[in-house]
Amino acid sequence: MSVRSTLRGVVYRLLRHPDSEVTLTARCMSGDGCGWELDATSDLDAGGVAVIEHTAATGHALFTRTVEDMACVVLNGRQEQERRAEALQMERAAARQSAAGRAG
User: How many whole angstroms separate alpha carbon 93 and alpha carbon 69?
Assistant: First the structure.
């Protein structure tokens, strides 16, 4: 899944980082102070089963769930990616020159 947006004429996409895993946590919202929580797990099916088992054991049926992953924003067009890479190289070169000027 990706989300696309255009800002200042540049198209960006929001993607799940390829090295990221999706994790699930959950917390019982029962009004009786239950306090049951599901520790972070990357096994989403097992996490869902744990929530269902808690409901079966207690009758508590209201939970908060947090699904989390690491995301990255990428430029959509090859030309824009190349332009940004070139600009970044120039910025780094200028920073190195500035640092060398202060050190010397």
Answer: 34
The tens digit of pLDDT for each residue in 31-53 reads 898 999 999 999 999 999 999 99
Do residues 16 and 69 make contact, with C-beta atoms less than 8 angstroms apart?
A: yes
Q: How confident is the model at residue 89 (pLDDT cuts 50, 70, 90)?
A: confident
Read off the tokens for 98: 């500035």
Cβ atoms within 10 Å of 28's Cβ, excluding its own: 20
8: left (phi over 0), alpha (psi -120 to 50) or beta: left
The predicted model scores a pTM of 0.60
Query: Are residues 3 and 12 in contact, defined by beta-carbon separation less than 8 angstroms?
Result: no
Please check whether residue 74 is in contact with residue 13, taking contact to mean a CB–CB distance below 8 angstroms.
Answer: yes
| Phi, psi at 70, each rounded to 5° | -100, 135
Q: Quickly tell me which residue has 């919202």 as its tokens.
A: 29
